[in-house]
Predict the 3D structure of the following.
Amino acid sequence: MRKLDLDVIVLFLFSLIVCYESFRLTLGSASKPGPGLFPLLLGVTLGVLSLMFLFAKGFKQDKKVTPLLSPGSGKRVIMILGTLCLYSVVFSFLGFLISTFLLTFFLMSLSYPAKWIRNGIASTFICVFFYIVFQVMFDIRFPTGILGF
């Protein structure tokens, strides 16, 4: 068994534990969900995705497994951690939309440095998606920031 398969199996087992423990909480109803509904949905999603990944990768041979922390990746890890710390500091000042756009744009630019337009469009869609989900659908208020939106 390859290391990849073991990782996916551990994720699947973890999803089963999450699903089992979520049933110990009340699930509620469709109109009034209980505290166990969200963990159940996350557990089911993790289980389905891990099984899909296991079966998709199970029939192919891995060409090369790269380590998570290669010798040159320390700088990138520090940049990502610094960016997340800066995001938490400027979140209330700049507001949700601006700070989240800058965060996603910077993080995507670390992975795809030459694709600025695509990174900007993807960051915009990510911000708008999360704005619609949390602000519009769930009525969760985020800081508006200096521009008032």
